[in-house]
């Protein structure tokens, strides 16, 4: 593609947004208690987690997803409206859809699916908007 534009700073910010949005979305003020209950996790189990490993790998995966979206939105005519729309479509039509299929086979609840799919859709919509506007 001759007109491919990827703003590497925007990609980095999108990856950071994954961690920030997750901290807000899964906080006690929003979905933490419901998410924890749907996963049947205890405070003791969560205390034994390895945050460096979890956040490190999550950031790398978010960076990969952000670059992937940047390639999809790399056309010079992309803007915030198309970026947000594309992000929503990727989040809803691809990522949340496959997540839902897997969760159904794992016999997870619809509440579990809704909480996590909501995060997925919001995240992709936000990064699509960022990548669409920050040319």
TrEMBL record:
It comes from the Bacteria. The chain crosses the membrane at residues 6-26, 54-74, 80-105, 112-134. The keyword Membrane applies. The keyword Membrane applies. Keywords: Membrane, Transmembrane, Transmembrane helix. Pfam families: DUF1761. This is Membrane protein. It comes from Constantimarinum furrinae.
């Amino acid at each position: 593609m001759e007109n491919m534009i990827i703003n590497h700073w925007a990609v980095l910010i999108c990856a950071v947004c994954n961690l920030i949005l997750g901290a807000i979305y899964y906080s006690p003020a929003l979905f933490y208690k419901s998410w924890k209950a749907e996963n049947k996790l205890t405070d003791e189990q969560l205390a034994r987690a390895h945050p460096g490993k979890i956040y490190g790998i999550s950031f790398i995966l978010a960076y990969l997803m952000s670059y992937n979206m940047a390639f999809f939105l790399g056309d010079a005519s992309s803007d915030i409206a198309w970026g947000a729309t594309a992000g929503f479509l990727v989040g809803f039509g691809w990522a949340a859809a496959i997540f839902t299929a897997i969760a159904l086979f794992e016999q997870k609840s619809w509440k579990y699916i809704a909480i996590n799919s909501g995060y997925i859709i919001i995240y992709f919509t936000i990064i699509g908007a960022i990548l669409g506007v920050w040319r």
